[in-house]
Amino acid sequence: MSSRNNILKRVQQAQPALIPMPADLVSAAAGDVHRFTEVLQSIGGRVVLMEAGEDVPQKLKELFPTASRVVSSIKSLETFFLHDHAQMTHHSLEDVDIAVIEAQFGVAENGAVWVTEKDTIIRVLPFIAEHLVVLLRKEALVADMHQAYQRVAYDDYGFGVFIAGPSKTADIEQSLVLGAHGPKSMTILLHE
Amino acid sequence: MQSSHENHSTLAERFNKDEARVSWHDQTLWWIRQKRDKAAWSLGEEWEALRSQASQIKTHTLSNLSGYLEEFEANAIANGAIIHWAADAKEHNEIVHKILQDNKVTQLVKSKSMLTEECHLNPYLEKNGIDVVDTDLGERIVQLANEAPSHIVLPCIHWKKEEIGELFHKHLATPAGNADPSFLTNAARIHLRDKFLTRRVAITGVNFAIAETGEFVVCTNEGNADMGAHLSDVHIACMGIEKLIPLRRHLGVFLRLLARSATGQPVTTYSSHFRKPRQGQQLHIILVDNGRSQQLAKEDFRNSLKCIRCGACFNTCPVYRRSGGHSYHTAVAGPIGSILAPNLDMKQYADLPFASTLCGSCTNVCPVKIDIHDQLYKWRQVLTKEGYSPKTKTVAMKTMAATLSKPGLFSLAGKWGRRIMRIAPWLVNNKMNPWYKQRDMPAAPKQSFTDWYKINRNKASK
User: What pLDDT does residue B405 have?
Assistant: First the structure.
C-alpha cells in the first residue's frame, strides 16, 4: 500500500498541468467486402463465400476432408457444439482439428474479426485449434478500427479479441511461417 | 548479460569484426523499415493525422497520469483483478515471487514483456528455483542461448537460421544440419505446446491499459500470450505505469499505428483485451514505476514515456543497424533505449546518447512523435555537465575550444596540420587517431580559407 501511495504522489508531483484530450478522429468510409478479402489474403487468411442454401457442415467437409475433431461454440451447429463446455477442462481441446466460431464483425482495413468470450464460450478455443473457421455476415463489416471501437465502445465483455489471420512468426531470419502456437490457417465463411 | 564496464563503441567494434554479418543485419532491418513505409503510406494522409492524434492522447494522459492510474485501479478491481504496485525492479520481482509462493508454483510460462527484461525477472526467479519458459519463438531462442533479446520486437534478429538449427539440435533434439525455418518453428511449437498445457501460471506483458474500463490489451502474432493466459490458473500481467490510455476507443488510434510501425503488418494477428479473469482464475496486474515518475518530472525527457515499443526507431537507425542490439547493454536498445536508460543510471549508460549520428530518422518514423534525436542531444549536454561524458571526448573538445578561441593559434594549428598531412600522412593515418577507423582522412588543401580569401577578395573587387 505504501508503494501505491508513494508512486501516486511522485507521479502527481511530476506531471505537468492538465493538457486537454484531443477530439476523436472520425472516418466516414464504408466497410467493403473486396478490401476485407484482399487484406485477409495478404496476411495468410482466406475468405470463402457461402452460396444460398449451402450449409456449414457440408462446406467444412469440402474444405477439410481429413479433419477428425471439429468443435464449435455455435449452438445451431448441433453436431459440433460443445455441449459439455461447463464441465470440460480446456486443455482437452488440444487435439481439435477445427474450431468453428461466429464473429460479431470484421474490419476491412486489416482483415481482423472481433470475437468475445460470449462467441467462443471457452476463451482458448480460437487459439488452441489446428485450424480456425469463422462465420461472418457480409453486412457486418466496418471500414477501420475507429468504427470498430465505436461498435464495442461500451460492451461488457470479460475477454475480447481481434483476430487477423492465422497465428504466425517470422522470428527465424524473417521467414514467414504460419502456425506458430495457434491455428495454422484461418478461413472466413462469409454469408448473407 | 553484458558487463557494465564495456561501452557501446567497444561492443560495436566487436560486432563489426564480421563485415558480412553486419551487412546482413543492416539489410534485414532496412527491409523491415521499408515494409513499415509501405504500410504507413498505404493510409495516405491519414497516417500523419494518426501520429498527431496518438501523440496528443499521450501528452494528455501524461498530464493526468495519477488520475488515470487511480481510475484504472478502481475499474480493474471492480472487474475482479488484483492490483499490485511496485516502486522499482526489486519490488516487482518480489511481488511476482510472492504470488508464485502463495500458489505453490515453481514453473511458469511467460510471453513477451520488455518490462520483465528491464527488471531482470528471469535471473531473479531462476535464482529462487523457479523454472521460466519464454514462449515467444524469438525469446525462446535467445533464452536457450542464454542471451538477452537484441531487439524489442525481433528478439533474435542477430541469429542466423543455421545457428538456430544447431541450437535446437542441442536443446530440442532436432536433426543436425536442419535449418529450415518452417521445420524449426514446428519443433518449437511442439516443445512449447507441452509447456502451455502443463504450466499453471502465465506472465504476460501489457501493450495498452485502459483507465475507463480497467482492461488491458496484449498484441502478439504467435498467439503465445493467449495460449499461456487462457490455459493458466493464475495470470500475472506486468506493466509500466506509462502504458495507460484514457479510453477504450483510443485503441483504434494506437492499434492502427503499432503493427504498421513495427513490422509493416496492418495489425498484429491477435489484439487480446483482458478485462475480467476467467471463472476460477486469478488475474494479477503489477503496476511498475522503476524510474518512470522521475522521467516524468524532467520536462526535456518526459515525452520518452509516450513510447509504445514498436521498434521503428531501431530499424531505421544507421547506428543500431550496424552495431547490433547487444552493444547497447540495456534491455531496451536503439535510439529510444538510449534516452530511457540514462534516466535509470546516468553513469552506466553515459555512452548511449553518444551512440547516434543525430540524423533524426528515429524522430521521423516514431508513431507517437517522440523527439528522439533532440532528446539524445539534450542527454549529451546533461551528461557532460554532470561529468559523465567520455574522457577522450572531453579533452578533445577542450583543446578544440581553446584553439578556436585564439585566431593566431588556430591559423598556426591549421598550417602545421596541413603540412603534416602532406609530408608525414602516417602521423595521422594510424590507429591512434579514432577518426581514421573505418575511413580515410581527407586530402589536405594547399592553403587555408583565410589565405585563399585574402588573395581572392582583391581579385573580385577589381
Answer: 85
What's the longest Cα–Cα distance across chain B?
Answer: 95
Cα–Cα distance for residue pair B155/B140, rounded to 1 Å: 9
Residue whose C-alpha cell reads 515525452 in the numeric block:
B303
- Predicted local confidence at residue A1, as pLDDT: 58
- Asked if A161's CB is within 8 angstroms of B241's CB, the reply is no
- Residues in A closer than 8 angstroms to B277, CB to CB, are 158
**Banded pLDDT at B398 (limits 50, 70, 90):** confident
- pLDDT at position B1: 38
Among candidate residues B211, B112, B42, B218, the one with its CA nearest the CA of residue A162: B218
Residue A139, burial from CB neighbour count under 10 angstroms (0-12, 13-18, 19+): exposed
User: How far is residue A9's CA from residue B64's CA, in Å, rounded to a whole number?
Assistant: 12
- Rounded average pLDDT over B30-42: 98
Model ipTM over 0.90:
yes
SS3 B105: coil
What local confidence, expressed as pLDDT, does residue B462 receive?
58
Q: Nearest-CA neighbor of A114 among A28, A63, A24, A188?
A: A188
Asked if B48 has any chain A CB less than 8 Å from its own CB, the reply is: no
Q: pLDDT grade, residue B3 (50/70/90)?
A: very low
| Minimum-distance CB partner of A22 among B56, B136, B248 | B56
The predicted structure's pLDDT at residue B306: 98
Q: Which of residues 273-312 of B touch A (CB under 8 A)?
A: 273-278, 287, 289, 293-294, 296-297, 299, 302
3 state SS for B246-273: CCHHHHHHHHHHHHHHHCCCCCCCEEEE
Q: Are B377 and B352 in contact (CB under 8 A)?
A: no
Q: How confident is the model at residue B11 (pLDDT cuts 50, 70, 90)?
A: very high
What pLDDT score does B233 carry? 98
Q: State whether residue B231 sits within 8 Å of chain A by CB.
A: yes
Buried b (16+ CB within 10 A) or exposed e, B341-380: bbbbeeebbbbbbbbbebebbbbebbbbbbbbbebbebbb
Residue B84 is which amino acid? H
Residues 95-114 of A with CB under 8 A from B: 107, 109-112
Residue of B215, B267, B275, B321 to mutate when probing chain A, most A C-beta within 10 A: B267
Provide the whole-model pTM: 0.93
Q: Residue B334 region, left (φ>0) first, then alpha (ψ -120 to 50), else beta?
A: left
The pairing of strands B215-220 and B234-240 is unpaired
Check: CB of residue A189 under 8 Å from CB of residue A134. Answer: yes
Q: A87: exposed, middle or buried (C-beta count within 10 Å: 0-12, 13-18, 19+)? A: exposed
CA angle B6, B7, B8 (to 5 degrees): 130
pLDDT recorded at residue B401: 84
Is the model's pLDDT at B2 over the cut of 50?
Answer: no
Would you call A11 an interface residue with chain B, using a CB distance cutoff of 8 Å?
yes
